């Protein structure tokens, strides 16, 4: 049985596109970067911890396979998680304005006897945003609960000047890499 260790509606919808039945697990993993931890290592670690926490919740099911994922926006060495409030969202969007950043999305599959990981890195260039554009986007509320204070699949997609990589990875679950992992576990053909 496949389980998704996430309450993200985007991840749930993306995983459903693969046509698999899966259960949902609500895991509480602290998303705190360690001092000196490189951004990509941080994203991989958090995704692995989510999968591991999920596996502990269903340890009685010996056939359980748990998918854990994490996605973060990275500019230089700075990791942009979910904004705390509207001011934080506006701050993030100002920093991303007119620049290219990376979106790192890591996926882990874990079971009682094995684990596998795939990490996808995409580059996103945001057009220059003026204060009115930032204020209008933040006012939609679409910036909350999303790494980097934006959702590429929503209104903010109009501000993405260029994407190199995985659209679904930027959304939160890179489907190509996820499908490859699932095939490796015999869960997808």
UniProtKB/TrEMBL annotation:
It is found in: Cytoplasm. Nucleoside triphosphate pyrophosphatase that hydrolyzes dTTP and UTP. May have a dual role in cell division arrest and in preventing the incorporation of modified nucleotides into cellular nucleic acids. Its cofactor is a divalent metal cation. This is dTTP/UTP pyrophosphatase. InterPro entries: ITPase-like_fam, Maf-like. It comes from Arenimonas metalli CF5-1. Keywords: Cytoplasm, Hydrolase, Nucleotide metabolism. One of its GO terms (biological process) is nucleotide metabolic process. It comes from the Bacteria. It holds the Pfam family Maf. Its EC number is 3.6.1.9. Belongs to the Maf family. YhdE subfamily. It catalyses: UTP + H2O = UMP + diphosphate + H(+); dTTP + H2O = dTMP + diphosphate + H(+). The active site is at 70 (proton acceptor). It is an enzyme of class 3 (hydrolase).
